[in-house]
Amino acid sequence: TGHTKEVTCVRFSPDGKWVASSSKDGQILLWDLVAGKLVQTLKLGNPFYATSFEFNPVEFSLAAISSARSVRLWDLDSFELIGSTPADSNQVKAIAFSSLGSAICSAGKDSLKIWQLEPTIKLKDTLEMSWDKISDLKIANNSQLVG
Taking Cα atoms as reference points, which of 124, 45, 113 lies closest to residue 81? Predict the structure, then answer.
């Protein structure tokens, strides 16, 4: 079984053992590539869906951009939603984990926000700037931000 609507994003886990896909059907499907089977379905709740997502490079978690203008974080050991950012005033366009996996950056139309993930999701800093045309965001191992 797969998605029932348009796929919005596909990513491999850092260890290459899983692949995940998100869709406008409001689900993120997690597949075990070795076993060749669906492991879990993460649901964002109707009518919301994930526009994009990223695996944490260190911790076994996944962050997704919700069409509700927030970022949601799941623990992939328990498959539980463990946190969410407050809804932004604009669409969140891109996200990236820090190289240590302890923070996440979210780029919106007019700002870049840095979120601390432990012990709970907390806004650490906001940089006001135009990110209107950004479609992807990465943080290099030397902590440089590339968008």
Answer: 45
| Ordered alpha helix ranges (H), the chain | none
Can the peptide bond before residue 57 be classed as cis, meaning omega within 30 degrees of 0? no
Rounded CA-CA distance 34/59 in Å is 20
Q: Can you tell me the distance from the alpha carbon of 79 to that of 71, in angstroms, rounded to the nearest whole number?
A: 16
Which amino acid, one-letter code, is at 108?
G
- Give the pLDDT means over successive 10-residue stretches in the chain (147 positions): 89 95 95 95 89 92 92 95 89 87 86 88 87 66 62
Q: Are 27 and 43 in contact (CB under 8 A)?
A: yes
Residue pair 106/92 in contact (Cβ under 8 Å)? The answer is yes
- For residue 78, give the DSSP letter: T
Q: From the CB of residue 147, how many other CB atoms can be counted at a distance below 10 Å?
A: 16
Please tell me the distance from the alpha carbon of residue 8 to that of residue 79, in angstroms, as a whole number. Answer: 20
Instruction: Tell me the pTM.
Output: 0.87
| 70 close to 51: Cβ distance less than 8 angstroms | no
